[in-house]
Specification:
Elements: H1 6-10, H2 18-21, H3 25-48, H4 71-92, H5 105-110, H6 126-138, E1 148-149, H7 158-170, H8 181-198, E2 206-210, H9 213-228, H10 232-235, E3 243-248, H11 254-261, E4 269-272, H12 282-294, E5 298-305, H13 317-327, E6 330-335, E7 359-362, E8 375-379, H14 384-389, H15 422-455, E9 461-463, E10 474-478, H16 490-497, H17 499-510, E11 514-520, E12 523-529, H18 538-552
Parallel strand pairs: 1-11, 3-4, 3-5, 5-6, 6-7
Antiparallel strand pairs: 2-8, 7-8, 9-10, 10-12, 11-12
Helix pairs in contact: 4-6, 7-15, 9-11, 12-13, 15-18, 17-18
Amino acid sequence: MEVLGDNAFSSSCNTLGFLQKNNSLEERGRLAGQKNLLSCDNSDRDSCYRRTETDFSNLFARDLLPAKNGEEPTIQFLLEVVEILTNYIKKTFDRSTKVLDFHHPHQLLEGMEGFNLELSDQPESLEQILVDCRDTLKYGIRTGHPRFFNQLSSGLDIIGLAGEWLTSTANTNMFTYEIAPVFVLMEQLTLKKMREMIGWPGGEGDGIFSPGGAISNMYSVMMARYKYFPEVKAKGMSAAPRLVLFTSELSHYSIKKAGAALGFGTDNVILLSTDERGRVIPADLEAKIIDAKQKGYVPLFVNATAGSTVYGAFDPINEIADICEKYNLWLHVDAAWGGGLLMSRKHRHKLNGVERANSVTWNPHKMMGVPLQCSAILVREKGILAGCNSMCAGYLFQPDKQYDVTYDTGDKAIQCGRHVDIFKFWLMWKAKGTIGFEQHIDKCLDLSQYLYNKIKNREGFQMVFDGVPQHTNVCFWYIPPSLRGMPDTNEWREKLHRVAPKIKAMMMESGTTMVGYQPQGNKVNFFRMVVSNAAATQSDIDFLIDEIERMGQDL
């Protein structure tokens, strides 16, 4: 795989936007003049848009814009909402604040101190709506807190947040250039940049943003089926032989779900054996392809995982690609979790061979810290995404519009309505540059290495597998003093199986930190620590270790 040189990264860090770089000197002067004019306007705006004491108890949604004389109530209401948001953000980054204020479902359903989830026929005052805004955040999880380690997606990026606010304000749909001109162009430019980072020459190919990695993975299966059996689009699965899909036994469940949803059946999703680190064994893939062919099945699709959910494992893509080429199978790489490493010159080698894939899933809302949701399906062959999904609805995709209708991307999607997921990501990329994402990813992997080094030989901690983690996933057991030095029997394992859930429950009750746990195969419950939060530091890792020891000491 071609390694990106320094120039490839520095070019993305240019402080001039792509519009400014292509403007003439005269145009740049006009833009600068507009900037100065905006600066002058800001002083007037600040005097107009200042919070004033407002009685919201007698104001209702009907009093806000577009109601007549609704401008002032609207401004004051939104300023109150912004105050709620900024206070929440400040507390999120304050380590003395809890990660969560936990309540059981029945408590929230019954109502909490004026916070009631029930809906009513009559409108409630804006005063109550503001209370609801505060309490909704109060009783939720602070996923941006520096000590939240529970999910692959965490953190709170301020630029991304600003992008999401503006996206909601624009309130448009991504199906045509006609109603989302700037967003459509942003999406195409960003997807091309992502394809370049995968290693496809010139960034050629296609892609689209989807509602999460599970749907992106489903797109890959659909395109594989269309590539080899296009008649299925019109005639259904009865027009195809018995097709089988292959994926790791430790891959994301969405591949099996795609098999069920698309009519293959979960019995035709063949699971591949993995080594002790959770990586697919290529020889097992080839053996199972041969076995399927001997049974009269038609192998269609192989999913290789780049960053598995639990172990953070990277399947050997090049070896899998060799087998796919030998048997003419579609190769998909699920890099939902690991795709961000393509931004890092230090770590991108872990995805060596990804440029040989037919399609790739990449979730910027995970390792790159983009606010949920932000997932892309990228495909090497141009035209197949549209061929697979287009229905040419005449009320949306008229061929005789006054602009180039190839920019009407909606017919490539399985959705009609499609949320604008691109702006927050594009804005973050502009603000950070590729180099900023690289620094974030390197920092997160350094923190996981720090955790591994701290606990690998620490009394009471046992690693789930030997060796340095491939990703930020660090999997380990905490063994309380009462279980140390005892023989590894079924009874001992049953007791150890209950340790992680008990510690997790104490974490949630106290609200100090959150980390995930799960069993895997014949392994009893263990902690899975992941780092993707830009706010996390070594002191937060130390705190987590201390909390686990404190809470588990007497179990």
